[in-house]
Amino acid sequence: MTQHLAAPSTGTSADAPGHRIGWWQDAVIYQVYPRSFADGNGDGMGDLAGVTARLPYLRDLGVDAVWLSPFYASPQADAGYDVADYRAIDPMFGTLLDADALIREAHALGLRIIVDLVPNHSSDQHEWFKRALAEGPGSALRDRYHFRPGKGADGELPPNDWESIFGGPAWTRTTNPDGTPGDWYLHLFAPEQPDFNWEHPAVADEFRSILRFWLDMGVDGFRVDVAHGLVKAHGLPDLGSHDQLKLLGNDVMPFFDQDGVHEIYRSWRTILDEYPGDRIAVAEAWTPTVERTANYVRPDEMHQAFNFQYLSTAWDAAELRTVIDSSLAAMRPVGAPTTWVLSNHDVTRHATRFANPPGLGTQIRTAGDRDKGLRRARAATLLMLALPGSAYVYQGEELGLPDVTDLPDEARQDPSFFRAEGQDGFRDGCRVPIPWTREGSSYGFGDGGSWLPQPAGWGELSIEAQTGTEGSTLELYRAAIAARREHPGLGAGTDVEWKSAPDGVLVLGRPGFVCTVNTTDAPVALPVPGTLLLASAPVAVDGDTVELPADTTVWWTV
Ligand code: GLC
Which of 114, 97, 117, 116 is nearest to 58 (CA)? Predict the structure, then answer.
């Protein structure tokens, strides 16, 4: 077993003078969703001890870093994205000592740790918010959130027309300590997630202190939740449209992607830079265009931003080429690496997205054609890992897991499922605990069952079943990530070289490599471009010709 030391990758961007160089530039970063990764204490819920025990698996997978979704003290109204105390671990996940052990053990194995930071909103059980409510109108603590009187004769209407991303109004009316109806407060997500007022200096001070707390704990970076949401347009103006869902993602909203957010990230960058060892911040910023996403990674702001335009692209050669080009072009002027992501805890897994017809969005309720979905998912992953920049892998995608689309309603926990007409709603399907073993309680996830039911057949997709199995998705990921380490050319630079290719096919040159992708439903014959290195499905090379099967990606060394 090889132990990969997380030596900072240097020099991989020699082709880009003045480009920032750091370990994160071409890193493969693995997202752990702590509830669903491994359960160390047998209560049916994943925890930090479980993650620590399984870190050797991640080292062997070959990833550079691990990003953990929130594990902080939280009433779990939104699976931990509602934080009551940013410096404490929720008992369901363990203790600060467990976090310390996890960080130390990861570092000893050569893995870096990125934690989630949730600055747009707190939990309604956060001390500040609880006191703001209890103290009633006039409490100075209310200025740290967005409290407003309602409209209408008796203040019975919300202060503006914004809707929650999870559906319903983005405002909830409070009850005064004397029992009378009171002011309203803003929550872009669930009512249990009141938005902070980032114009208040105490909020900014608090988050600078939280950053330092975790940096002192030794973390290597932060994934910044809803990074596009912190600043709201002055005066909280009405949107003036009843079709917020259509506007989201296509327009700058009065509550998303306001220019003022960048000031905050500049101040955070100075803190990150004070610490040794290349600590990074990664923006979860849903913006209308890749160009606006690039604003978050200007040289004095964050290091990376998720590329949701890429995640949202259909399995279609022309569309993929367009989004790859526009992503690279958008990042070039700011000198940040482009990132690539296909799945996370908020969207239907890509094996299921690609099993369904395009155009259904990222919350899909049908299983579709599973074989096709898996074939395409494997091909999509090999394409992603051949692109310059940093790639994100969501736990379980290395097993080719599909979304669990038939969860019974009574098992569902996603708050947006219960609020009609929300943007999201079917996120439980990608959050089902992953299978480690063929048999046993919750397929090796833990000794005490699983907080979301796992489907029959999960065991055959387990790490145990796939380890050492030729052609398994897990072995494909291992081989691909190992090849990226061995040939830094694969993740390096800021360009791809498009070569001529038939419709539905991509042939792209990378330093020392050619990657061929057939996105069509039929095999395609191509001239052999080099020596076959890795393929997402068996391919037949006949002399100078290769027959690329439907939905297949192949890496060639040249
Ligand atoms: C982000 C998280 C998502 C959460 C939301 C509110 O989008 O990824 O899971 O529900 O923020 O915090």
Answer: 114
